Amino acid sequence: MAGKNEEGKSGVFCSQTSIIIAIVVAIALIVTVGIIAGVTSRSGAANQESTAATTTGPTTTPPKYPQLNNIRLPTNVIPLNYTFTLDIDMTKLTYDGDNVIRFQVTSPTNVIIVHADGITMKSAPKVASDAAFTNTIAVSDYGQHNKNSFYYVGLQSNLAAGIYYIQFLYTANLASDLNGLYKYQYTRASDREVVWGVASQCEDFYARRIIPCFDEPAMKATFTTTVIIPNNYTTLSNMPTTSVTASAGNKMTYKYQETVVMSSYLLAFTVDDFDYVEGRTSKNTLVRVYSRKSIKDDGMYALGAAINITQFFENLLDVPYPLPKQDHVSVPSFDSGAMENWGLILYREELLSYNQYLSSTSTKERIVTIVAHELAHMWFGNWVTMTWWNHLWLNEGFATYFAAYSASFYAPTMNLMAQFTTDDLQIGFISDASALSHPIVPPAQYGPFFDRITYQKGGSILRMLRDYMGHDDFISGIKAYLQKFRYGNAYTEQLFSTMTSTINNRLNVTDFIGCWIYQMGYPLITVKRGTAAGTGILSQVRYLANKDLDPNADPATTPYKNTCGYKWNVPITFYTGNAPSTIVRALMPRSGADITINWPANTWIKVNADQMGFYRVMYDTAGWNEIATALQNDHTQFSKTDIASLMDDAWPFARADRISYTVPLSLTKYMTKETSYLPWFIANIYFRTMGRRLSGRKSYQDYAQYHLAIASPPADILGMMDNGGDIEKEARNEILDAACGMGYAPCLMNASMMFQKFMQDPSANNVPGAIRDVVFNYGIANGGVREWDFLFNMYKQSLSIADRTRMLFALGQSRDDWILRRFMAYAMDPTKINPASTTTVFSYVSLNPVGKYLAWDYVRENKNYFMQRFRSTRPIIRVVTRYFNNQFRLNQVQQFFKSNPESGSTVAAFENAITGTIQFNINYLSNLLEGRIPTMKDENGDIFIDRDPDAFVPILNYLRTKEIDLRNISLSTVKHEAEFYGIMPLVRQLTLCENKSESGCGSLHFSAYLSSPNDASMKRALSVTGHYNWIAVSLTETSGWQLGFTSPYLANFAEKMALNVRVIGGALGDKMIAVASGSQIRLWSFGSVPVTQIGTFELYVSVDALFFVDYGGGGSGNWIEIAYGTSSGIVRVIVQHPETVGQGPQLLQTFTVHRNAITNVMLSEKNLISVCTEKHVRTWTVTRFRGMISTQPGSVPLASYRILILSNVQEPFYGLEAGNQIGPFGHRDDEQIFIQKVIPEINYLYVRLASTGERVCKIRSVDGSNITCHSVHECEGVGRLSSRLRKFFFTGHENGSIQVWDLSTALSDAHKLSENHLPSDGGPSESELQKILEQCDLASQSAQSTPIYGSLVSLTNIGTSPIPRRLNHNRTISTSRLSLATNDSRNSWHRVPDSNRRHEPIEHENITVSPPKAVISDC
Q: In sequence order, what DSSP letters do the residues of 593-645 get, joined into one string?
């Protein structure tokens, strides 16, 4: 079998669900999971189907059959042939079986024992001495022995040596767990119908679930198969058909040729309606690739690989492929990566389907290597099979190595033999560094281990052996082995002895390699200078990831004892700086003695050339520094494999605290010049891990800065394009992913641009497969709900599993927390996302910095779902908490375990693994904090991880003395560290210290936080306005709060809103709301009467302003002043005064004040203010006398300034202007203000005096969410001696919340400052503007972006800002903190539950008007 692990490296071959269990097993249970064949296999009736009946007959083991107590079958009964029929019902999803076994008895026996599991016998088995069953033999008893999955048939008399037959008639359900003969569903493209299919998986112990059989690898036989299925399906098995005939009941009967002699685990079947592409090898073997009809042509690349690699093996091994046909089938639901069934190889669909327009280069590589892996099994595993499962490496280790070797000849541009080190050898290192590892060949009672030791380490040992022996001797020995044991079975020593004799004993293979096979672990080779000039000393010791363990001791809990004292024969290869092209060889004996080598002075050394040996290498500090310097001077002195190996040694050493982190980081400094795949692949693995562990910490920014600094130059070189060879495309994907991930603006800009174009026309603007991952990931990360919904719809419609997998990962990259919550809700809804992907979705969300804790919260909220679905919460908790890195979260997890106990044999192991991982992450950060990085900057001042050890000093002082000493350290830094360590008393004290100088809300001007209407699914606020103590807000969807009025859904966005909650007189109610959309105004009344739509008014011109007029009443008339602007830059003032009643309004003045059209104008008590299209403001002082207004038109204005506002002019967000007017605001006194938000997507803005342009204050969102709309509101004070008007500022946010700010206080504070303290340019300063522009994308066409000026800019000529365009990627919005935060005590703003709340945003818009349950500030 073959597959890939979650990091894209070859690894454990199991489903996504069982990966979680396998990881825990590897950590804590490896001693107990050695599967004893037939005893503790994963098979069982419960796995077959929960309703499956057990076998009939007696279930008590008769004492007269002691053979039943053995874990292995008796060896005196040997199968010769199985002739069986499977009648499959695709409606009931069951099958009936009729199986006749021809077997040989070699010594007398009175019992026949076979394997059977999860099947129901219809009648007593029959035994006869002839195939026609005319000479039957009396059966005394029969039944199931569940312990070993045995089925026994007792006989009244002994069978003498000879040939006999036994028949079983039975029925069974098609399984649902992807083992045995199982059912699955797929979507038929022609009619989008979901239909059933059937496939099989028999390795390791699942053939017994299809037919009663001798289910052991050495019990080989032939199989003669008949399959009956409905006539609207087709079926395949191992061999070609001999006949296909119609049967009763609209069925077809398929009869197949007898197979060659083979093991039962190679039996295979499919039932589906697939189509195929085909070809033939040079020896005329028919090769076909089957898949769903809609993707039939996607099998062409695999077909070419299969034909050519089959021919390669035939020529290399001198053994022709022995079957007449070779089918490769892509199965939509398949547990392993692939399965090497002889003649019918089955694959996961995504591992056999290559679409040149959709598939990535890595997909292409996986296809060729997995096809090669399965074809290698045709010789290594099928032709010659291991005798028992503990020798599984003879199958899988050989297939792993020869997959890369053979595929490298078919696809030389992929550099697959070099990638073997990163994809296989280094993966084997990880598992084998545990004290609880196991040998490649464990004792016979343990296994099989389908894991990294068997596959990756096994293949790596073969690679090392070939390198030491030489190619010719190695292949000669392999050929002899295949010939000697053809169609038979072998164990490891037989391989070694055959190889030794074949090369005339020039090397005793057993003696040389035996310790690597029968002893777990591998050596660490330490390199240091010798005492003699020009020499080096090499020594070996067992390497363990935990450096504190004794490398020479066997753990008490392991059943595997060392066989060679944890020493090995180590083939040493090295080269030095004075001759980097000359590789020197030596052998370090397993005696453990050090060896001396030549190492010229004043030069570096690289040991383990191209990492051919399965060992790690440790240099002293000087040695590491010399290598790092050599890389920076000329990295071409090293092969890419060697650079990758150096990094893969150094990073784990630092993680284990064997060396400083400055060592692996220094090895990466040269990478600004590196554009090759292997170094970047390894570096990114460790950088991503570091970033996730530092997430949420101050030091993360320094890490990100460094990672970006080395990634951006090669990103500029390679660019966001699809050219070059396979290996260049893989390198581009790695480098762009790093650059975009660290916020490289050009990378993000191009990814977003390509994604936007893709949204416009997916066919015309298809994103090439080589960069599809990057574009999708960051198109979503830097987009909003529009982008997310588009890709989710693509996901649902796509029939490409590979593309669906890519899309699913990208959907988890959103930086909007409400979207991520919706994504997880979808993952729990089978109508939205396949339940098989539930765990995957939560894993993807937890990898997102926004979703890191969100996923954990969501799991806790829905713990009942996970208990019902998986019978335990521990597996999903392990997935979502793996990067937790602080004591607070560890305490949370432990408390959850305490409050929600579970039973089961694996619960304790899961909990220990979960908490152990979190503790490791905490220790990882502590290592940094405690100075285990000796210096945070190198000699050039370059930042590695810039942590301040001084931050820990006041914490230690507090723990010792309970006193807080903040000298020479900022309060916020100490508070951050205290939060990390969970020292809550200190956190609370520091919080009080913060409140001495500023409000607990974070700003003296902050008045209230009105949470999103629907906390579980936050909505974007588009427009907000107010009247007295009421607030109206326009949202993408409305629910929650206490609803006073909800409009019907509007066809268009509400561009203008006006609210009047003090309507006097009339029968229409005491409240009104008006909404303008385009040229229409809609008016409703509500409050004291039911909601009534007064009418819709068509004006036929666009509405520029909308407001209710407050009628003061009394007197002989009203003083009316109207100022308006024109498109020619002219301001006109119209006046009507009480003393001129009857004369009507009079045009007072007309004067030109701008060169551009006027967009805003305001006439206040003291000022006339106008704004033109270029946001140029001019303000004049005005005076009044007896109805006349005096100005000085044409003279110097009181103020003239420009308000810089950047908006997306090419593709504005529809409705953006509705809630983002700049002003001037303030009608009732002389304190008019402008609101300046430089870019649309930002979380802060500036308030400026309209009269002078000076800054009043800078307002920053209290929860970090972007401000999407705003409004200034004036109302009379309440509860004060005077009723002076108070100004409040409402900000609406992307999460649907409203924040209320006290502008009156802000204005008062501003007036108290001297003119020197108020910036004359009240907008952003030059430095502030620079920071804003660094966050801008000045060329993107995204609807969520900042403005577009100029054409698209290439990667090489844009600034190198490290900050992503979308801000606040790590923001957290509290959905439970709904109380007011003001300087005086106020009541809470209560939210009234709404049973009709929606769980997701909708495409339409409605309006919500909400009264407070308490007085807000002064209104």
A: --EEEE--TTS-EEESGGG-SS-EEEE-HHHHHHHHHHHHHHGGGS-HHHHHH
Whole-number Å distance between alpha carbons of 1034 and 1076: 12
Confidence at 1044, pLDDT banded by 50, 70, 90: low
| Strands 120-121, 109-115: pairing kind | unpaired
Catalytic residue status for 1334:
no
- Residues 477/502, Cβ–Cβ less than 8 Å: yes
What is the sign of the dihedral through the CA atoms of 1300, 1305, 1310 and 1311?
Answer: positive
**Angle 316-464-419 from CA coordinates, rounded to 5°:** 80
Report which of 1162, 1133, 1169 is spatially closest to residue 1148, judged by C-alpha positions.
1133
What is 337-400 written as a DSSP string? SEE--TTEEEEEGGGT---TTT--HHHHHHHHHHHHHHHHHTTBTTTEEESSGGGTHHHHHHHH
Q: What is the DSSP string of 515-551?
A: HHHHS---EEEEEEE-SSTTEEEEEEEE--SSTTS-T
Burial of 1229 (0-12, 13-18, 19+ CB in 10 A): middle
Dihedral through CA 1089, CA 1091, CA 1095, CA 1097, nearest 10? 120
Query: CA 1231 to CA 1304: how far, in whole Å?
Result: 9
The token pair that represents 1179 in the structure block: 């303000």
Sign of the alpha-carbon dihedral angle for 1033, 1035, 1039, 1041: negative
Contacts of 1207 (CB under 8 A, 6+ apart): 1216, 1240, 1347
pLDDT at position 49:
39
* Cβ burial, residue 746 (10 Å; 0-12/13-18/19+): buried
Query: What is the Cα–Cα distance from 754 to 1005, expressed in whole angstroms?
Result: 42
Active-site entry in 340, 374, 396, 911: 374
What's the rounded Cα separation, in Å, for the pair 836 and 185?
12
- If 0-12 CB within 10 Å is exposed, 13-18 middle and 19+ buried, where does residue 211 land? buried
Arithmetic mean of pLDDT, 1363-1378: 26
Check pLDDT > 80 for residue 1323.
no
Other residues' Cβ atoms within 10 Å of the Cβ of residue 1327: 8
Beta bridge partners of 193: 188
- Please say whether the beta carbons of 572 and 614 come within 8 A: no
If one counts every other C-beta atom within 10 angstroms of the C-beta of residue 308, the result is 21
**Residue found by looking up tokens 């395949």 in the block:** 236
Half-sphere exposure of 271 (CA within 13 A, CB side): 32
95-120 pLDDT per residue, tens:
999 999 999 999 999 999 999 999 99
Return the structure tokens found at 264: 């039962």
Give the Å distances, CA to CA, from 538 to 426, 605, 630, 1033.
Answer: 21, 12, 21, 74
Q: Identify the residue whose tokens are 């990758």.
A: 644
SS (H, E, C) 690-728: HHHHHCCCCHHHHHHHHHHHHHHHHHHHHCCCCCCCHHH
- Per-residue model confidence as pLDDT tens digits over 1371-1394: 222 222 222 222 222 222 222 223
Using CA atoms, how far residue 812 sits from 851, 1221, 1366, in Å, is: 8, 34, 16
- Tokens standing for 717? 């070189």
Q: What is the pLDDT of residue 1227?
A: 59
Instruction: Quote the tokens at residue 1397.
Output: 């709340």
C-alpha 786/C-alpha 334 separation (Å) is: 33
Q: How far apart are CA 1258 and CA 690, in angstroms?
A: 35
**Radius of gyration for the chain, computed over Cα atoms and rounded to the nearest angstrom:** 38
The closest alpha carbon to 639, from 668, 617, 610, belongs to: 610
For position 1354, what pLDDT does the model report?
29
Determine contact, residues 595/502, Cβ cutoff 8 Å: no
**Residue 767 and residue 776 in contact, taking contact as beta carbons nearer than 8 Å:** yes
